[in-house]
Amino acid sequence: MSLLELHSVHKIYGSGAGAVPAVRGVDLTLRSGETLGLVGESGCGKTTLGRVVVGLQPATSGTITFEGRPIEGEYGRRDIRRRIQMVFQHPAQSLNPRMRVATMLAEPLKLLTDVSNDAIDDRIASVLTLVGLGPEYAGRRSSELSGGQQQRVAIARALMSEPDVIVLDEPTSSLDQSVRSRIIALLRDIQQERGVAYLFISHDLSTVQRIADRVAVMYLGRVVELADTKTIFESPEHPYTKALLSAVPSMDLDARRTRVILEGETPSPSELPVGCSFQDRCPLVHDRCRREFPALLPTRPGHDVECFAVEPQPAVTE
Amino acid sequence: MTEPFPASSGDDATFDPTEFDATLTRRSFVRRNPLASAGITILALYILLAVFGPSFVADPLSTDPASAFQSPSADHWFGTDQFGRDVFARAVHSARLDLTIGVTVALAAMVIGSLIGLIAGYWGGWVDEVIMRITDVVLAFPGFVLALILVAVIGNSIPNVAVAVTVAYIPYFVRLTRAEVLSQREMEYVDGARLAGNPPWRTALRHVLPNSLESSLVQATLVAGWSILTVAGLAFLGVGIRPPTAEWGVMVAEGAPQIITGQWWTSLFPGGMIVLAVMAFHFIGDEFGGEGY
Amino acid sequence: MLEVNDLTIGVEHSPLSLLREVSFTVEAGQIMGLVGESGSGKTMASLAIMGILPPGIEFREGSVAVDGRALVAADGVVRRTAEEMAMIFQHPRSALNPTMRVGRQISRVIRINQGVPAEEAQQRAVQMLAHVGIPGAQRVAKAYPHQLSGGMCQRVMIAMALSCRPKVLIADEATTALDVTIQAQIFDLIRDLVAETQAAVVFITHDLAAVAEMCDRVTVMYGGQVMETGDTRSVLTNPQHPYTRFLLDAIEREVDPRVEEKGVNFALSGCRFAHRCPYAFEACREFPPMVRVGDSHYASCFLHAEERSSSVTA
């Protein structure tokens, strides 16, 4: 069931006094065939976490298991690399500007799989069709494509080796709304056809709402709330999630919601206070938050929250 | 659904107004790049001269003391020198030699320098440290002085001169390529290439290098000009290519003393050809390297 | 307050027009959203109104007036003062001078435009910074842009833009680069300041939800052409132009599959959306007129022109 598991994964950049902890002890499970949304604001560590999951950067500590076996340090192996792929944020930048689409798509096949050379062209044509472009795009260069087409090629490249997990790092953020909508529809279709699991990283909550089965909310390197999409958007528990959701502009002209406007800004990850990292902006802050570190605990089955105020056991008695 | 309107332009959804000048307004290449066009024209003439010229002119080495120091005329376009050799024939033969050396040196320095720069920029760490310190030391000498020292050490045959000048210009390409690789390395397509299974050396050579060569190509045209100047300079000082070889620098060196005695043509014509050739390369390099590219 | 009429700009030495007969008005104290996707001409429109067109782009015709005073001369040169118009940009950090303390940047604007002595200008700069909700304005005034966060820099930009109390404020994707929680703060700030100063605001964005949240009126652009304009509620709940409908579908539903994913064709002389529009017909080869489709709600589309004429004949 669970395909990919992260156990207390840390990623710290630099060392000594200038060390910046980008990811601070994340536990997550990705089930096969599901879409797990990973949301948070800039600097929360979501992109770093995605890069650690695909092995572009090593974790500082913690374990990552794939189908039950640890894969730290194994990313160079063909059978691991083949099965965990990624799509990046900037479609124009993520494709080699001097290479033809076919050359780019052939690389994962040649380098990661045993597909025979004769079969490569057929595979490229079928994947290009799957992503809605068609075989005639094989001879193009990325500079001849629009942003949406480039992102389709990037998705095709990630699909070539028939992976089980694709990390999607803000795949629609730099696209126009109408193109974005189509890419999301495409990703959903691909998931149904191929059964691939997505780790969908985004700062855009409305996009995540449209595609994710479950959502993890990150703040300053920690997952602070994790639940299925409906629960996160309809009955969030963590004060940060609530504030984040209420800050998103809404198309609904009549629902003047009660806004939770957060005071101040996200503190720098290199100067975190003792206790809960959200304490300085939290409307529910009390003494305990400044002394102890909260843990991500279930309030209900399938709904984990990292906050003293909503712990299932009696919270504050003093 | 049939489309009622033919779409005449491409379907690139992004629009960048700065692209308009070059792509959508119909201004000719010459109008947009006057200097480079002049450079390319001059260079084309030189190449024609270097390729076909030598078969149509007299032997550059045959002497005829009886007709020494004739001023330019219909028979001898550039006059004759103190041994009665035809200056035009010698200048045409040197065009072949000097252009060959200039282009070879620029290409060799670019290939070697870019590969070293790629290694330094892509692998970083102590490899980068070592390479860049060596480069700094080499760059501390002006290119000309370094080439002069090298020629003094390894001898002044034509290939040795070319090697010496190449070595002197390699560090420029190392620096340029390294700087470009450092920025390209951070691009998402490099991560994409790694995820597609490319081992580090393949990522570096197939993906990073081709995207890091643009400024080196511009530099190469400049270096082609400089190395012609350097080769001629070494010959002028008497440490480079030796007489009686037909080479512009040699000719200028031999002709210089006669300027005071009135035979200006023996040095002025080869000198002018050096200036024109170096200028042509610079025009091309400047325009493509500078604004408007 | 701000009146833009038939604004047309194009590429020098070329028949391409980047804006075609763009017209809109914004009243004092009103926020008008200018929405469109990339290449819609919304940014180009703001640059033309401010008179800061990039090189190679030429003014062709049209007029821009603030409070009845025409800003654009016949030669296309815009003469405006800081009391008339100010602009805030998408990337506040790159719009600020990195080598100058932010307090000084604001006080210079005040000094140059209003001729106040340096000391008084400096005091007013600090007041402005406090006014846009910057805690410790005295201290922030002495900071350089790189020492401030993106949200702070945008507040500084807003303080600078409003320091001369402009009648018109143009906000070009002012919150796009910011996190949503910071965006919400800036939205509140802009709303409060507009209510207070009664400036007319052109709020340029690609985000229709931001329009729903912020704007009284909205103008939808595509390919340099105004597609639809009107009251926000009317346009968003009852869109009359096929393009507006397509944009709205993209937010929550699937988009119409018949609309091809294609770039803007700036050479089209007819309706710019026609080569993607599923309803396009012969008439769309001509430039469509603005048709009134509701109370102060207009759409530039022959579908409505036809309906009207046919209903008239029927």
Name the descriptors.
B: mainly alpha, 12 helices, elongated, C: 314 residues, alpha/beta, eight-stranded mixed β-sheet, four-stranded antiparallel β-sheet, 11 helices
Helix content of chain C: 25-40%
Structural class of chain C: alpha/beta
Q: Report the average pLDDT across residues of chain A.
A: 88
Number of helices of chain A: 11
Number of helices of chain C: 11
Largest sheet strand order of chain A: 6-7-8-3-9-10-12-11
Most extensive chain interface and residues per partner: A-C, 33 and 38 residues
Structural class of chain A: alpha/beta
What share of residues are in beta strands of chain A?
A: 15-25%
Low-confidence stretches of chain C: 310-314
Distance between the termini of chain A: 43 Å
Helix content of chain A: 25-40%
Largest sheet of chain A: 8 strands, mixed
* Oligomerization: heterotrimer
Overall mean confidence score, pLDDT of chain C: 86
| DSSP E strands of chain A, number | 12
Please describe what this structure looks like.
The complex is a heterotrimer of chains A (318), B (293) and C (314). Chain A is 32% helix and 23% strand. Chain A has 318 residues and is an alpha/beta fold. In chain A, the strands form two sheets. Chain A has an eight-stranded mixed beta sheet with strand order 6-7-8-3-9-10-12-11, with helices on both faces. Chain A is globular, with a radius of gyration of 21 Å. Chain B has 293 residues and is an all-alpha fold. In chain B, helix 8 crosses helix 9. With 314 residues, chain C is an alpha/beta fold. In chain C, the strands form two sheets. An eight-stranded mixed beta sheet of chain C has the order 6-7-8-3-9-10-12-11, with helices on both faces. Classes of the chains: A alpha/beta (318), B mainly alpha (293), C alpha/beta (314). Chains A and C meet through helix 6, helix 7, helix 8 and helix 10 of A and helix 7, helix 8, helix 9 and helix 10 of C.
